[in-house]
Write a structure and sequence with these properties.
The protein is an alpha+beta fold. The protein has a single domain, classed as NAD(P)-binding Rossmann-like Domain (Rossmann fold), CATH 3.40.50.720. The chain has 4 helices and 2 strands.
Amino acid sequence: MIPIDLSDKVAVITGGSGALGRVMVRTLAEAGASDAHYWRKVPMQRRGTAQEIANTVLFLASDLASYITGAYIPVCGGNVMPTI
């Protein structure tokens, strides 16, 4: 496993974002989902921003996250909570 093999050299972290930006929202609209209906189901009840994803990446690249490896970090407003 990569996190174990590289643990002394690099942190291995994966992440996933919720529906962000115009492309994802357009895809939802094309599938017939209304914007308001979709966001009511997300615990934070709003769309995330690219800045929020960037903030997470910056944190994970900082010394503050030096003990994090082999993790999946969802940045999705709580949208995947029922599946974790």
